[in-house]
Every structure is written in structure tokens, then in C-alpha cells.
Amino acid sequence: MKILVINCGSSSLKYQLFDMADESVLAKGLVERIGIDGSRLKHTRTGQEAVLVEQPIPDHKVAVSLVLKALLDKQHGAIKSLDELGAVGHRVVHAGEKFSCSVRLDDAVMAALKECIPLAPLHNPANIIGIEAISASLPNVPQVGVFDTAFHQTMPDYAYMYAVPYGYYKDAKVRRYGFHGTSHLFVSHRAAEILGKPIQDLKIVTCHLGNGSSVTAVKNGKSVDTSMGFTPVAGLVMGTRCGDVDPSVVTYIAAKEGAEKADKILNKESGLQGISGKSSDMRDIEEGMKAGDARCTLAYNMLCYGIRKYIGAYAAAMGGIDVLVFTAGIGENSPEVRASVAEGLEFLGIKVDAAKNDFRGKERIISPEGAPVTVMVVPTNEELVIARDTLRIISGR
């Protein structure tokens, strides 16, 4: 069976086409900087050179249409007809407490996902647009939703509860949910495989750093705490999201600007974009910092400082740390960020070897030989996890 996996982020769309007979990747690609200047599609059919399409990509509907066009291309595509697709699996960010595992998508599930839009205003609309765009092009192809929140269902109540009146949890399900679960699941298990150790014996901190970023404490293979919360706006400084702030900052901004404008400010105008005043993309921030831009430098330092704090906190929560993993766009491709995060964490046994760290986008151990904590870069593969779940559900396994 051939399965297409769609992974829509707030400003990106990753995709992979799998032949599940051997889990081989027939084609893959990335649409990046959606809604940002410089948007483009990079498509690669396995065994061929990548093809780059640079054009304005204002939204995810346009991104999906470009993906399907690339897959069908006579020279660079991987299928001759859309009828070859047996199923489509989607990364879906937020399902509240409605779904604790992957499910086949139908009208009832879609209605539930739309109810969760206020919980993930940047991501759920993009996820839903991707699903609906595929439905329009492939009305008879089954689709499966794989939820970011599922991996974090193992958090203990004292980690996921907020100290607000209990009725808000009981009646409105106000709690920490956590996100990027598929990524944290994959890279923690892959780290254990690389080390040849049972994941049940390891204390791992995974840092998913991209336009959206989160840190997770994985103890004995289970998520026990994570930086994102009720929505993906909590935790680290992100591309356009503010991360952790005093709740009174929210009410203060809302009183000045109105609730709707405050929500937009905190989700779409804050983070790296809001601090730097230039961009939500870390590559632009690093370029600005190297050019001496003080606000880009501030944005960079705020992110790295926040990551360090969470690593220290989660080492304390787990009673130690054996492995530190960097993944996602920034984590995989910014040796500068990796080095900056590790700086000052030597007391935990965390150290980065400068020579080993001088690379981008590969799977590699970057800590010195014999270091107490193994520091690793593990490119995330959420798509494979989604493909496996999609096959399992469609096959009724």
C-alpha cells in the first residue's frame, strides 16, 4: 500500500510518500515559509536530485495543490495517478481529551477537530485545511489523524493540572496537553536504538526546536512532562508565539487591545518575530545577530536561555538525565543554537564537542567521548510514525 503523509505546521508542510511493503520513501518534500517572503517547495523523488519551486505560497491550500502536482509530475513524480494512493495520514495538533490515539477521519472526527481550533489557533486550521484539500482531490481515499497530544497522555496529574479551580478541569478540560508528541516519541526511541540501550532504562530530554518548539522529559519511555500546555503557545519562545508569560500580561494586553487582538498578538506577532522585529525564522535571526542587530541577538538569547532552563528543570523532575536530543528545523540545522544551549550545563554532565557539532541535518552524537550525558542530533521522522499508524488503522490491526 502507498501512503501519503501530510504534516502541516504553522508555516510549513512536510510530506512523504511511503511504500508500506518495505516502508521505503518514494518521494518527499518540504513546503516552507508559507505566508512568509521567500516561500518555496523542495521536492525529491528517491534516487533523483531535488527539484526546487520558488513562488508565493500564501496558504496551506496552495501548498497542498503544489504537493499533489509534484507527485504526479511525469519527470520528477512518484505516481502516475492519484488512484495509486491507498490512504493519507495527517499530523493533527490538538484533539483535547476527545482522542487519546490515532483515528480514521470522518465527519464526526472533523467536527471534533474544529471544536478544538481555539486550543490550537495556528495549527488546527492548517491541519484541517490539509485534510479538506486532500478530501476534495481524493474523495474515496481513507484518511487517518495522528495526534500530537497522544504521547503526553502518560503525564501524571500533578504535571498536567493547573492550579485553577478544579471545576475548570472537570467541566472545561483546562489542563496541560503537550504537543509535538509524535516527534518526541520517535526521537526518544531512536536515541535509545542508536545507543543500544532499552528506553525503559533511560532518562531523556528531547528538544523539538522549529517554528514551534517544545521540550519533553521522557522517563523510561514515557512522557512525564512537557513545555507546551493547554495550547501550543506555552513554553519556549517560538517563531511567532510568546511562550511562557505571566497570565496577567495576557489580561493586561487584552484590556488594552481587546481579547481577539490579544490572542493574535500572542500567537502571531510575538516570539522571535515580535522581539526581533524582522523575522520568525531562526536563519534570519542568526544572520541579523552576526550583523550586529541587538534585537536579533536578544531574540536568540531568549530562546537559548529558555531551552537551558527547561533542560535543567526536567533533569530535576526525572532525578537525572542520560540523553539530550536535539531535533526539528532549528535543532537539526543550527550548530550555533545547540552549542549555546549546552553552554553552562556542564554541571549536569552536558557538553558539546565543537568539531562533532559542526554539521547540519544528520544523525550524530555531538558530546565528547565518555561524557556523562550523551548529547545527540536525531532528525525527526514524524511521517514514518504517522504512516505506520495509518496502515495499522486502515488494515484493522
Please give a handful of descriptors for the protein shown.
single chain; 397 residues; alpha/beta; Nucleotidyltransferase, domain 5; 2 domains; eight-stranded mixed beta sheet
Structure description:
By secondary structure, the chain is α/β, with parallel strands linked by helices. Helices cover 38% and strands 20% of the residues. The chain is built from 14 helices and 14 strands. It has helices at 60-72, 107-115, 124-137, 157-160, 167-172, 181-195, 247-257, 259-268, 271-276, 282-290, 294-318, 328-333, 335-342, 382-394; strands at residues 2-8, 12-19, 24-32, 40-45, 51-54, 85-92, 103-104, 143-147, 203-209, 213-219, 222-226, 323-327, 364-365, 374-377. The chain has an eight-stranded mixed β-sheet with strand order 5-4-3-2-1-6-8-7, sandwiched between helices. Strands 11-10-9-12-14-13 form a six-stranded mixed β-sheet, with helices on both faces. The protein starts with a strand and ends with a helix. Pathway: Metabolic intermediate biosynthesis; acetyl-CoA biosynthesis; acetyl-CoA from acetate: step 1/2. Catalyzes the formation of acetyl phosphate from acetate and ATP. Can also catalyze the reverse reaction. The active site is at 148 (proton donor/acceptor). It catalyses: acetate + ATP = acetyl phosphate + ADP.
